[in-house]
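Run folding on both entries below.
>entry_1
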Amino acid sequence: MNEADTRREHILPALTTAGWNRDGHVLREEHPFTDGRILAPGRRAPQKRADYLLCFTPTFPLAVVEAKSDERPASDAIAQAKEYGQILQVHFAYATNGRDIIEIDLVAGTETSVTAYPSPDELMRRYRERTGLADPAATERVLAPDYPSDDRPPRYYQRIAINRAVQAIASGERRALIVMATGTGKTSTAFQICWKLWSTRWNRDGTARRPRILFLAHLDVLVDDPIRKDFAPFGDALTRVEGRVSTAYDLYFALYQAIAHPDRQPPLYREWPPDFFDLIVVDECHTGSARDDGLWREILVYFQSATQLGLTATPVREHDRDTHRWFGPPRYTYSLAQGIADGFLAPYRLHNIVTDVDATGWRPFSGQRDKHGQLIPDQLYGTPDFERRLKLPDRTRLFARHLTEHLRRTDPFAKTIVFCVDQDHAEDMRAALVEANRALVSAHPDYVVRITSDDGDVGKKHLGNFMLPRKRLPVIVTTSRLLGIGVDVQTCQNIVICRVIRSMVEFKQIIGRGTRVRTDHQKWTFSILDYTGSASLLFADPAFDGDPLPPEIEYPPVDHLPLPPGQTADEPPLPGNEANPPPPTPPPPPPPGPIPPPVTPPLPPLPPPPPPRLTVEGLSVRILAEQVQVLDPEGRMLQIFSLTDYTTERVRTLYPSPDALRAEWATPEGRARVTERLRERGIEIAEVAQALNRPDSDPFDLLAHLAFRTSIQSRASRVARVRAEQQAFFERYTPAARAILDHLLDLYAAHGPADLDLAAAVELPPLRDEVTLPEIVARFGTVDSLQAALAELDRQLYAA
């Protein structure tokens, strides 16, 4: 039997007998759990599909089953069963050919032959024993249904994160961390976690009341968007905290700076009792929730009896802001690379643009003054200085012209974010882009806008329109840092970097602005235009898609350590921040005699004013080089100009010799297989022909030339050789039949091997206007004779 018959006749009945697919236990057959890596707009690699996914409840998978036909050993399915089991983070996987069953314990690392599949209750018992999920109430909450959402059920990685977090919280863990790449749905994941706990009435007391949950964020958009969208099902149980405290709700959204503002004493959060909240969810917790002297830390310490759940795309490992130190190691991590490999995130193309002043630096001549008459200090200025210490308007205008040309070549209405040095630079860039796009700005006044914190309500309005996929304007937004985190612009197709970025955390957040996929708006991929060299360095850093190691820190002497803001040397550290505190020193006895009057210490000197920003006009700035890189289907960076080298490597991997490639290519079915196999590896034959500038040649000749250094000949020369050397072949047929073969050769020479397909050729002139397919069959006598003639024509065309 083939694999499908084996599943139907043997595997499915055995699973049903074991109890799967009844009594609420779910058996998912041919279950797709990825979308398939995006290879090009409109084209994906195949989805990953588990033959069977065994779920104790619809929301709690326990095992995968991978099948092979009964003609193959069950062990042939082990590798795929392990791969899928590891991706889906289940503890058990099964490999089978219908007769033999191999159980793979992915946690214990064992492979055991078994005679039958375990029942759902047996597999759940084993899972609970090894994970410590002993409490029936905790189990009930882990297995609770999601909030029903038929249009957007949780993806497999969201399901893992939801179950891991709920299990940790329901089992009494006090802190938990979930790491998910930007664009993978942290907010909807957080909603399902809160919903499960709220709907099952989990709380710290073990009573029947619903839990009280505080959702903390640091930006308005990270509060307003969840309230309006994902968390809307909470209805009247939800509120946003602004100005005053209430205790009448179950779910509270707040900006940490609003409830812990240093200008308000005591801070607003202290109006709640310390034990008021059961759960605190900290969104984008890398931004400061673990900083020893931060406002977030102050809030989390005050509500230390609450369970605390951190969500982030980019955990940090710095000595004063260590996400892991506060929340513990992640319960689950879903990376940017995995999201791109699964097809849930968009792949990117990186443009590295280098100007002469960035490559060599700029130095003033002796006594040179800037635009405003200020003397320019004599030194070599480089990219980090530009637009901070030294404004170069000519460089800004060059960037604007180059970006405009990129949009004209691709899509002038592709949404674009330009990250600038500061708000002044963002305004200069906006003005330069308006100048470079006069016609578009004349027709569409909001084509280019600036959105920064200084832009107030107007900026918020522009941001709201920019985030909506259905809104065409604005198209280009210049900003400094405001759009670098938490802004969900799903149709953004260009990320433009015009300032030096050294922080890996910030870089990941910026790249995340482009990773959303919206195929309904033709958003499949995005481009990164880097004018400062930041992206190349950070993409090459091993920490780009991993967990950055803590830096080697050389600590200064204790008496030189800076104190947190507002804390004097006599004040104790914040609660929860006492790492091995020294024993208290008793105060010295008061001196004899009268108490002297207090001495007022002198005020500290004012900090020096920042150095003036110099402006240099009249420079001749030009672009020295532009290098374009893309991700290949294996996730590696591939320089676009080495497409031919990449094709060479892949063709040699697939076909060991030119004869093997020729044998596959010589039939229509074989040509389709070759084309599809190359496409799955990110290679379009048309792009290879364009790279070699040989549109008149057969794709076989181009591939064979690249892989095996054979000579390239045109399709016309192939046709001429066949007509000259194969007269005996043509003389077998009547003049009417030979005319059909001649027409096919002419179409092949003009257009390529696709026109050797007779069914397609009869739809094209001249055959379309002269003859029908039944008439062609009649000219050759029978269908078999016609098929034999076409097969021989193919063979002769591709003969060595």
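>entry_2
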Amino acid sequence: MGLSFITPLLLGGAALVAVPLVLHLIMRRKPVPYDFPALRFLRERAVANRRRLRFSHILLLLLRMAALALFALALARPVLRGAGWLVDGEGPVAAVFVFDTAPRMTLREANQTRLERAGSMARVLFGKLPAGSKVAVLDTSGGAATFSPTVAAAAARIDRLAAATPANSLPGVIAEARRLLAAAELARKELYVFTDCSHGAWDNAAPQPEAAAGEPTVLFIDVGGSAPQNFAIDAIDLSGERVSAGTALAVTASASRVGPEATRSVAVEVLGGDGTYVRRGVKPVTWTPTAPVQIDFDVAGLEPGTRQGRVIVEGADDLEADDIRYFTVEVGSAARVIVAAQRPATRAANFLVQAIAPQSLMKSGKARFEPQVVDVESLDTVSWDTAEGMVLLDPPPLPPQTWESLERWVAGGRGLVIWLGPRAGSADRFNSAASRRVLGGDIVRVWRSKEGNFLAPTSLDHPILAAFRRVGDAVPWQDFPVMRHWEFVPSAEPQGDGNAATAAVVASYRNGLPAVVEHRLGGGTVVLVTTPVSQAAADPDAWNTLATGFEPWPFLILATETLLHAIDTSDDRNVLAGSAAVLHLDRRDVPAAVVSTPAGDDFPAAVDQKRGTITVTATQVPGNYVIRAGGEVGGVAKGFSVNLAPSATDFSRVPAADLATVLGPGHRLARTEDELVRDVNIERIGSELFPWVIVLAALAMAADWIVANRFYAPREGVDAGQGAAATFAEEAAPADRVVPPPVPPVATASPTSPPPVPPRSGPPPVPPMPQVQG
């Protein structure tokens, strides 16, 4: 903050403050002293009057000097710079404009989107930029962080801004802008951030640093809506990403409303062979702002192959980006699964087989899996090539060559589920280097708990547990106690050739030890459950009642979902925008594939012929993507769907207190163009203090007038001339001299006039006694 003057030469007028002082000294009168009789009260009164008059004169002197000084200061027109959010700013500046271009910025209010509002505010700032300024425009969709060659080029860049999937968070782009400004050559640096102040932009963001000396100064421009209205489909849940032919696909949509209660229909559509969407169901929905809405659809009659669809809100909306959710499923025959158990294998595998492939569904051809039950000792004699998954029920310690075969088989894109039990023997016999590479860790010991232990998942976010979200906390895990289970310890580092990741705990028991563990191995997945489901209900040494308790529907879901996850996670059929999608083409003889985007564009993508997979990273646009390889005849057709992350469409405002914390101490936030222009003018031109200084000068003159009138006012019984003379005489009289009070005039008597009236108060006049001053 600094002070300067528009006309500094006029400050010379401040020398006029000496005029009252000179006049005060020149005009002092030296009255003639008189000796009075020894009247004590007169002497004391003279001393008191002299002190009062001296203070009055000093006060008058200071007020007049202050008035002249303030007048001179006002004529010089002082300007206070740095009173706002910038430093001194009359020369060129290095300015960076940061825009949040997430899809939520397309929220329309007053016939203007939030991004259009930000552009109009930015043009106001462009008109305030000094000549020679350097400007850069950054946004959350990505792009190079460089200064534009001209201000006009930067303005054109703003005109081309469009909402897109964020490649970087808003705080991340702000950090890039700070680094760009730090490398700028211009001394003065400005940073403008256009934001809707929403949870989607600022959740989990660290507070912005306070501007220090030499660092860019920041102005946040709030372009959020004041009273938005919106219909939104927040998410969709599928009964599975793989559906058997003839089985209906269950689609559940979660929707929410911002604004007053309204009625709007929601529809589910399936993409046809001609590229158009065919409506398969529609339901009217009453939307309330107080609670989310759940809409359920059953889509039957899906043809085999990759099938794609969408759930859509009918009608116009202020934010269209969250009105559609896309999905992709694979429809086909039941997946062949090998189930290996101890002899007699059919009896040991009975609970699991009935859970994953009920007899009724097997007869109707609607089962998801086609289980093949074998003895675990005969596992090596069965062909694994056509099997998509394998389940090992209470396996014994396996030879290293069997573990190595399982490792290669799983890494090729298959799924393996292991339910550990008493046949594992001891940890020393079961654990080996080969088993550690497959499982991602080691078993340690058997934990025993007679009562009080059961599965207790802390979260339902994992795909294996997603099916339990519909009932949430209502899953009666406590009704299916686990008396014994293995303690499993994941490896600290990845095992194998580097393609394997460390094992991750999916769910735990009440005692905190792992119950379900997932381990990615190459292109496949291993799921480990640390307690078995192969023991009969009458077995006194049974480790749990998961499969034998009363109505064990949680076990049915858990058995199905673990196997589905193991054999399904090799393909990313439904991903979030910006995430890579990896799909298996089951073809190693094609070098490339063609990817068709929702916008109708095609681009080639290389195929990893070693693994037979294709990886697509250009997934910024939400919608359904199609992949084709090997030609129209005998080729492969796959697909995947891309949806926006919840934060991309979350425009709900951050509370003022939380926003102040995240924007940092001393932040500046402008909401209107008037506030924007005011702040820029304060910093670029400075805050001119002339009105304030001239007011102070007027106040000083008014104070001088009041004090002077009170000081020179005539006393009671004394005319104005004598009062003034007496005032000067009293001021100048020495302390040991008494100045007589003024003698009132005596009227001349006449025959017709009344006798003179004596004064109403005061002592009688005393004639002066001349004396030569020694």
